[in-house]
Amino acid sequence: MKAKVKVTLKNGVLDPQGKAIEGALGSLGFGGVNGVRQGKYFEIDLAQTDKAKAEAAVKAMCEKLIANTVIENYQIELA
Amino acid sequence: MNTAVIVFPGINRETDMAMALESVTGKKPHMVWHTETSLPNVDLVVVPGGFSYGDYLRCGAIAARSPIMNDVRAKAAKGLKVLGVCNGFQIITEAGLLPGVLVRNADLKFVCRDVRLRVENNTTFFTNKMAKGAVVSCPVAHGEGNYICDAETLKRLEGENRVVFRYVEGTNPNGASNDIAGIMNDEGNVIGMMPHPENMIENLHGRTDCKPLFESLLAA
After folding, report:
1. CA-CA distance, B136 to B131, in Å (whole number)?
2. Calpha distance B164→A67 (Å, rounded)
3. B107–A16 CB contact, under 8 Å
4. What is the pLDDT of residue A35?
5. A66 in contact with B at a CB cutoff of 8 Å?
6. Catalytic annotation present for B198
7. Does residue B220 carry a pLDDT above 80?
């Protein structure tokens, strides 16, 4: 089973990298960009075949390591 | 006084820190590799600066989950003194020993220069030889020193006098909330700071402003 995990900054947390990307898009001539937020994406290959167990395991991984829940949210997708 | 310095892959300031500790204690610190599971019997543990694990995932995140950190956490809960400097500050916040997190410098630039640092709390194990409000020169070298935490935590840190060091107004190199350069936990036995006091203690460093910080360890 494969897990796809998206980690994004919580609302209100300053994202200077997103701001820099937004500025670069503007200087390339892309108009109408109201904002950019940068996040992280992980693909995790799991031996577990039970979806509920896999989800619980990946949630624990996110809480313990993959995300810092002080500043980040995470979303898990299993396939 | 017996001390230990934790060593992770990618750390590069452990020798500077060891020399700074030895200069006041007269004893070489135990250098403890991250795969160890228990600390030697010491009075102080220092988590030094560098780039543990190449700052992969988040700075300090992987080092914070290494085997030795379980014992650092357990003994810190019983009152062991812990000092985290630079990457060490990032590591101990990731390990949950201090609240908040260090994020990318607001202007995205790595800063490597001397800053002016004010001692806000001179009753700690690392500042008791300093006057309250004393200003020292101290080097910083980091890309992720922008301290942030939620509004309630910030209020508590300020209200409980847990901001130990602050960048002097107008010299904040990273955008940290309230110019915070260093904080402590509520029991006062864990201190984290972004600047490198171990690099401002000898004439060869140009100045010796931070020597009294290390001398404070002996009185604590």
Report:
1. 11
2. 28
3. yes
4. 95
5. yes
6. yes
7. no
pTM: 0.94
Contacts of residue B119, defined as CB under 8 A and 6 or more positions apart, other chains included, come to B127, B130, B131, B132, B133, B134, B135, B136, B164, B165
Nearest to B182 by CA among B202, B206, B210, B201: B210
Chain position carrying tokens 């002080």: A70
CB-CB under 8 Å, B100 with A70? yes
Percent of chain B with pLDDT over 70: 100
User: What average pLDDT does the segment B146-153 reach?
Assistant: 96
How confident is the model at residue A14, as a pLDDT? 86
State yes or no: is B160 an active-site residue.
Answer: no
> DSSP secondary structure string, chain A?
-EEEEEEEEPTTS--HHHHHHHHHHHHTT----------EEEEEE-S---HHHHHHHHHHHIIIII--TTTEEEEEEE-
CB pair distance less than 8 Å for A16 and B106: yes
Nearest to A17 among B99, B108, B150 (CB): B108
CB distance from B150 to chain A under 8 Å?
Answer: yes
- Look up residue B152 and give its two tokens: 């309630």
CA dist B73 and B98 (Å) reads 11
Is A52 in the B-facing interface, judged by CB distances under 8 Å?
no
- Dihedral pair phi/psi, residue B118, rounded to 5°: -105, 135
CA separation for the pair A25, B29 (Å, rounded): 51
Q: Any catalytic annotation for residue B196?
A: yes
| Amino acid code (one letter) for A50 | D
How far is A45 from A48, CA to CA, in rounded Å?
A: 9
Catalytic, out of B86, B138, B149, B210: B86
